[in-house]
Amino acid sequence: MSSPPSDLVLDLHYWMRLTRTLDNQLIALWKQGRGVGTTFNQRGHEAISVGAGLALDPDDVAAPLHRDLGCFLVRGMSPRRLMANQLGRATGVTGGRDGNLHGCGDLSLNLVGFISHLPQTMPVALGAAMSFSYRSEPRVALTFVGDGSSCTGVFHESLNLAAVRRAPLVVVLENNQYAYSTPLHQQMAIDRLAVRAKAHGMDSDTVDGNDVEEVHRTVKQAVDKARQGGGPTLIEAVTMRMLGHAIHDGAEYVPQTLLDDWEDRDPLRLYEEKLVSRKLVDEDYLARVEEKCREIVADAVDFAESSPWPDPNTVSDRVYAG
Amino acid sequence: MSSPPSDLVLDLHYWMRLTRTLDNQLIALWKQGRGVGTTFNQRGHEAISVGAGLALDPDDVAAPLHRDLGCFLVRGMSPRRLMANQLGRATGVTGGRDGNLHGCGDLSLNLVGFISHLPQTMPVALGAAMSFSYRSEPRVALTFVGDGSSCTGVFHESLNLAAVRRAPLVVVLENNQYAYSTPLHQQMAIDRLAVRAKAHGMDSDTVDGNDVEEVHRTVKQAVDKARQGGGPTLIEAVTMRMLGHAIHDGAEYVPQTLLDDWEDRDPLRLYEEKLVSRKLVDEDYLARVEEKCREIVADAVDFAESSPWPDPNTVSDRVYAG
Amino acid sequence: MEGSSNSAPTLTYIEAITDALRTEMRLDPDVMVMGEDIGGRFGGAFKATKGLEDEFGSRRVMNTPMTELAFIGAATGMALMGLRPVIEVQFADFISTGFDAIVQYAATTHYRWGAAVPWVIRAPSDGGIRSGPFHSQNPEAWFVHTPGLKVVAPATPADAKGLLIAAIRDNNPVIYFESKPLYRSLRGPVPDGDDATPIGSARIARAGHDITVITYGEMVRQAMAAAEESAPQVSVEVIDLRTLKPLDRDTIIASVQKTGRVVVVHAANRLAGIGAEIAADLSQTAFEYLDAPVYRLGGLDVPVPFSPPLEDAYRPDADNIRAAIKDTLNF
Amino acid sequence: MEGSSNSAPTLTYIEAITDALRTEMRLDPDVMVMGEDIGGRFGGAFKATKGLEDEFGSRRVMNTPMTELAFIGAATGMALMGLRPVIEVQFADFISTGFDAIVQYAATTHYRWGAAVPWVIRAPSDGGIRSGPFHSQNPEAWFVHTPGLKVVAPATPADAKGLLIAAIRDNNPVIYFESKPLYRSLRGPVPDGDDATPIGSARIARAGHDITVITYGEMVRQAMAAAEESAPQVSVEVIDLRTLKPLDRDTIIASVQKTGRVVVVHAANRLAGIGAEIAADLSQTAFEYLDAPVYRLGGLDVPVPFSPPLEDAYRPDADNIRAAIKDTLNF
Ligand SMILES: Cc1ncc(C[n+]2csc(CCOP(=O)(O)OP(=O)(O)O)c2C)c(N)n1
Ligand SMILES: Cc1ncc(C[n+]2csc(CCOP(=O)(O)OP(=O)(O)O)c2C)c(N)n1
Ligand SMILES: [Mg+2]
Ligand SMILES: [Mg+2]
């Protein structure tokens, strides 16, 4: 296994750091009572959302969910617009019509937004992939889904349809051990979630969701295969949701030992250690990146908090396309 | 493999013959313009519906679908009530409220009725099974599902829930090569449908759906296992839908060679030949059974056609339970 | 019949649907059809898509597995990428199986993040043909109540074509309720070209001055029969709504200002149906013009029953409409 | 506070829900609860089932995977076998995910083959709390329009308990819409015993003689505030519907006969909402008593927006109700 080129390595690291920094800032804002509505946590998911997101070409379509802050970022959605959306401002992605990461779609960035009803985004991403086949375009669609969501009907219908149409779709299944408060063993009678694909004759793989290079490499292979007409792939990425489901959730139902075990394998720290030991970066570099990310996020907060609220007179605008 | 006891052998044969006779009579009635609405065909499915249906104890619950005329019969629903339902009479199972085999449920016979939305009956049958666990009753629920229906979300949600709860449920998947006009290869990227179970960690098996003893034996094993707390099983029974989807459908989309191949393996004729060759019955016996079935079915037609229509003043009755 | 391309040949309602699909597929390579059993020689449960695969190939005529959630959701993704999928649900009754994909995803997308979802769902609806509770439903009220959708329901072959063309060209998710009892029993002139019937505009199916009957779909035929039977003593105006969302309030109000009396009719459950919205709206906006309460006639609050005497008791018809007209005039 | 078992302790709205569940689970071993995350120490997204697993065990408090279709369908099977499942959907918004299991299977079963389906769905509905388009919905109109269901929506802690008890004992599928904004912000006396609030009977929340405000859920609180602010100049009667299906037409009509003026209010989309049914019905059955058109106040025809200024513009409140009262009196 050859190492990835160094610009990719630095990208993987940078976006994970930015994701973590933004996530931490959201938590801080809400703890300080500066939030609006709720916000989700993504800690533990950086390697998956960033590793997978960076496996795409700009023309490809991504449909990230509530743990995939990193994917929104690598696809070019700015921290300013994301933060403003979280705070319900007119300058946010949805102009205050939707909250947190919900609805953060932007076709100019080839980003498809999600809805709460999980995982209704899957068939939509599949449809994007089917449109590529329809037009013989060499493009791929990527979407994410959780372990809990892999129990749903729409997940299976989507895999079945993707497989029978050999659609250029890659599905990253984020097995983070829990659906809200419900552990895997109360959700399903399997423990290797990649087997879900077998029911539909689809290729699948399982990766360490805390190893960003492994995630990236495996998703990239699946993306390349899909682009070449090889059909869809389901990739299970195993990780742990390190915080509550959303900001209000203390996750007291998660055994501390489980968290401790996974804390030792924090995807960002693991990668930083790896890069230092490979001598690709030094501590100084890491500190500079961290500082840069902090600045970007601070700027996003300033931007969002000084942005106007949406005008209530526009509430009925934009229900329909012209 | 020991042969089944002779009373079971004769039962399997008798109910298959009655099913075939009733099905033929329905076709004849509709061709003569004596039908109301539509009626489904079940030719080719006799071994599955009868073989599986007879694997249950009286206390067990069955939830048969539109190809499972045989299961309704073996569970004790009379040809009279079934025929009257097909003809929309007050004496039919639903009193004219629902048509053909739809809604033919009767809790006194432990039969759960189905709806068109396929396969919404699956979670209902699962719920019956879950109620047996809840009450620690040694009972089992059995339901049927088609190949087309195995693509649906509700199918997969039901298997997942059944598996994680180890519910005493047996699901017979009737792979009859088509969903209406759509052949398997346009529906899914698999050809052995039993693999659907793998996605949910459920046991599964595949049987020759035209071999009534194999169907019966395999379903019985699954029923026994479920009754002993061994959890659910999915059994794929492979057969061919020998006629159109419903009475109006000439099924011109089915290649004749395919039908010819399967006609050679007609489940009823195969079994009659086997019984004769095993010297368990003779031609005379078979003729007598056929005659008896004809009488029963003729009586059912008389009963239904001489039954009153429902009173239109009752149209709003019975929407709610008291 | 002359061969002029501007003539209006006589087509059945379902032929007009096929004509609209063919017309739009010829004009726009982004238009495609998808659904269960719609392809090949079969051409769908009602044959509305028969012949299309021969002309346009299987890429543009896509047989789907029985997965309403996945294929409606996929149509949304295709629409986001600029295609214009026309989805057939085999019966309108099965639209509930894809409910989330419609009311949660597609309906809200443009409002939330500004992306257009230009698909059409063709939903063969309505009863009167002994099809029982699961092949006879008229579920339009669910969708009229849901923000973000448009809903149309043609009553004539000409509008079956014109509204389908308009729906395909519309940049929003449109649900097109076709009335099964009209498929082969109603025949009428259908313009040859590619003219659209504008969404949001009702049609005066019959002018009159004593009373207004407001309806849509197959009930227009029943209302026309009732109007004929009531003439010449009573002059009945019949409004064919054509679009259920957005409602053409101007046409409705103008008629009511003239007649002062209204009967609203639909085959769907009367309770909390479209008729309730129209009656409530008129009672508020045309209060001073109404000489009698708005009479609502609709299906009973029961699942559509199968047996003929029960279904006939369930479903309004010309006789019921005539009686409602009489009642409302005698108020 | 005295310890008498007949006293009425003061509970929050959500405590009253828990109280009802506990009361019925103690009385009837066939009553059980199921849903996502409802078990264990967690006790559900809103903690309505907290403590129940400790008392009744995991057999009767069943955590389900995220499979709305399967677990609502399974509840139907359990109900057919004589159990009385109380299903929690995590938010009312997700009820659309289990739609077929509700509107197609459960709702039609008794009509078709005479088997009772005694389950309850608890649906945490309503907005005003900055939860955005998918955690703020009021989807009751879909279910009122669907034959075979009952629909209730308590506005007070006492009715939160009483209606849930009634729903559990009812032999039909009942959808119980609880109003999230009331959960912890509304506190009131709740009878200690196991009395049911009968399904189908509205409540005069406030007697008055000038005008009737008809509403339910959290809007009762808004209406009461508007009524207080309108007094003493205007004497407002407030009807808390409590049951949306079947509607208590007698109570409504009696009030309208007295006041002659009506405002109907709900947070759900006004278009083709419950208010339309009530207004249409009154306009027909109380035509001669109405001195002004029935005023309908409801949510806008848009997805419930997230941002505070937008949600406030979407959603009726006491000020809007006061203005509607004024308008209707000045008609
Ligand atoms: C259809 C549906 N039902 C219920 C919910 C409520 N809900 C929000 S997130 C969640 C758990 C999701 O678990 P998983 O898919 O594993 O994703 P994770 O949050 O762990 O990343 C639930 C039940 C929902 N969003 N959608
Ligand atoms: C949810 C849903 N969508 C569409 C239909 C229309 N339909 C009726 S039968 C059928 C095919 C069913 O195929 P399969 O499950 O293989 O059963 P079979 O009829 O072959 O026994 C379809 C599509 C339906 N009944 N339910
Ligand atoms: Mg998870
Ligand atoms: Mg089949």
Overview of this protein structure:
The complex is a heterotetramer, with two copies of chain A (322 residues) and two copies of chain C (331 residues). Chain A is an alpha/beta fold. Chain A is 42% helix and 10% strand. Chain A has eleven helices and seven strands. Chain A has helices at 6-31, 46-53, 69-74, 79-86, 121-134, 153-164, 184-187, 212-227, 256-263, 267-277, 283-305; strands at 61-63, 141-146, 169-175, 178-179, 182-183, 203-208, 233-238. In chain A, the strands form two sheets. Chain A has a five-stranded parallel sheet, with helices on both faces. In chain A, helix 1 (6-31) packs antiparallel against helix 10 (267-277) and helix 5 (121-134) runs parallel beside helix 6. Chain A is globular and about 50 Å long. Chain C has helices at 13-27, 52-56, 68-80, 99-113, 140-145, 157-169, 218-230, 249-259, 274-285, 308-314, 318-329, and strands spanning 10-12, 31-35, 61-63, 84-88, 120-125, 150-152, 174-179, 187-189, 203-206, 211-215, 236-240, 243-245, 262-269, 295-299. Chain C has eleven helices and 14 strands. Chain C has 331 residues and is α/β, with parallel strands linked by helices. The longest helix of chain C has 15 residues, at 13-27. In chain C, the strands form three sheets. In chain C, strands 3-2-4-5-7-6-12 form a seven-stranded mixed sheet, sandwiched between helices. In chain C, strands 9-11-10-13-14 form a five-stranded mixed sheet, with helices on both faces. In chain C, strand 10 (211-215), helix 7 and strand 11 (236-240) form a beta-alpha-beta unit. Classes of the chains: A alpha/beta (322), C alpha/beta (331). Chains in contact: A-B, A-C, A-D, B-C, B-D, C-D. At the C-D interface, helix 4, helix 5 and helix 9 of C face helix 4, helix 5 and helix 9 of D. The structure holds thiamine diphosphate (TPP) (2 copies) and magnesium ion (2 copies). One thiamine diphosphate sits between chains A (67, 116-118, 146-149, 174, 176, 178-180, 241, 245) and D (36, 66, 68, 90, 94, 97). One thiamine diphosphate (TPP) sits between chains A (67, 116-118, 146-149, 174, 176, 178-180, 241, 245) and D (36, 66, 68, 90, 94, 97).
